[in-house]
Design goal:
Helix content is about 35%, strand content about 25%. The protein is of the alpha/beta class. The longest helix has 16 residues. The model has no long low-confidence stretch (mean pLDDT about 95). The structure holds MU-OXO-diiron. MU-OXO-diiron binds next to helix 2.
């Protein structure tokens, strides 16, 4: 297991998880990495650890550079167990090392591991010298837990950004100029849409702080390291965290006997003729985390469900629950669907989208199979609503 050098005194010593496909409900079709970084100075510092079952990989990479007993500081930027899982075993091995974490990090570590570790807490922005290098600690609470912070290594201009700017990609390549920028950007967008989106305001604050820092390398906790496209990913984060939409519509649906699907296709065709970029997304064939990636820039969210036992189909309900948790703002919504007798499914979709604060169009309901006249009437009304 070889480490990878970022700068003369900074190394990637993390682990590659080629097999991960589910990260708390997020489809990680390309796997991921857990990035841990080793800084060599008078005081030797490890930034974050890895998921517990990758402890040996991390230790093997550290051991290729120094003896792990030489580590003085272990920085815990984030307590979530994909970054702190290997910490208990590591601290058994180096009990005299000092953990540096935020105040919430200290609380979180105790609540997770209840261990008797030497912990130094960071309160607000703070600097620590490791000899020839200066580490700046910048709290970034809620990007993505209350404990999050990032570390900026002044002399080498490296930002260890933890969850921010990450992507779930397992690769042998460690740097953006060695991989495909389009895939990295898409996976970073997916990561933002499924992990960071609820905390867009905190991201905006973080980006403002970073405006005053000269960054050569962004070393996130997941995926590939940014060194040749730093302005590119920062610009993208600015766009995504601004909840900015463009002329794009998602038509998301599930269907029982194809009637709601017929409506979905006709609704999509109206938006197409009005010049919208359209995505027709059947919940049977699209993962909810991929739909969120598409949703991040969409102006209209149209959701269709037939009525099943006075309710929406469970797939539609699951998507709405997931989407509401991620809280995309400033959108326009439309509910539609066919029904047999009650028709409450469409009402539930409408109520859910309304509760998100979206500007809603009048819902469309059709009994059993939509007739040509009903379809034409629906399209005429939709065209009028989009005028
Ligand atoms: Fe990669 Fe919020 O943990």
């Amino acid at each position: 297991m070889k480490p990878v050098q970022l700068k003369s005194n900074a190394f990637w010593v993390g682990a590659i998880d080629w097999d991960l496909r589910n990260f708390h409900g997020y489809l990680t079709q390309r796997g991921t990495t857990y990035n841990s970084y080793l800084l060599i100075d008078d005081k030797v510092t490890l930034i974050d650890t890895v998921k517990s079952n990758y402890y040996d990989d991390m230790m093997s990479r550290i051991s290729a550079i120094i003896s792990p007993e030489e580590i003085d500081y272990v920085i815990c930027n984030h307590v979530e167990m994909d970054h702190s899982g290997a910490l208990p075993r590591l601290m058994e091995h180096i009990p005299n090392a000092e953990i540096i974490t935020s105040r919430n990090g200290q609380k979180g570590l105790m609540e997770h591991y209840n261990a008797d570790w030497k912990i130094r807490t960071i309160n607000g922005t703070e600097k620590i010298s490791t000899g020839n290098m200066t580490l700046n600690f910048i709290p970034t609470p809620m990007v993505h837990w209350p404990d999050n912070m990032v570390v900026y290594m002044e002399e080498e201009k490296i930002l260890f950004s933890n969850d921010a700017f990450g992507q779930h990609i397992a690769t042998s390549e460690r740097f953006d100029d060695e991989y495909h920028l389009d895939i990295m950007t898409e996976e970073a967008r997916k990561y933002f849409a499924n992990i960071v989106l609820p905390y867009s305001e905190q991201v905006k604050n973080t980006l403002e702080m970073l405006d005053n820092i000269d960054i050569e390398i962004i070393a996130p906790s997941h995926g590939i390291i940014w060194r040749s496209n730093v302005p590119h990913i920062i610009d993208n984060y600015r766009q995504w965290s601004g909840n900015l939409t463009r002329k794009k519509t998602l038509v998301i649906y599930d269907t029982m006997w194809k009637s709601t699907e017929i409506m979905a296709k006709e609704i999509a065709s109206v938006f197409l003729t009005r010049g919208y970029e359209v995505r027709l997304l059947n919940l049977q064939t699209n993962h909810i985390s991929d739909i969120m990636t598409e949703l991040i820039e969409a102006e209209y969210i149209c959701i269709g469900s037939p009525t099943l036992n006075n309710n929406m189909l469970p797939t539609v309900s699951a998507f709405l629950t997931y989407m509401k948790g991620l809280a995309p703002r400033n959108r326009k919504g439309l509910a539609f669907g066919s029904y047999g007798w009650g028709g409450q499914g469409v009402d539930h979709v409408h109520d859910n989208l309304t509760s998100c604060g979206y500007e809603m169009l009048t819902p469309f309901k059709v009994k059993y199979i939509p007739s040509r006249d009903e379809i034409n009437d629906m399209k005429k009304k939709l065209i009028a609503a989009l005028e």
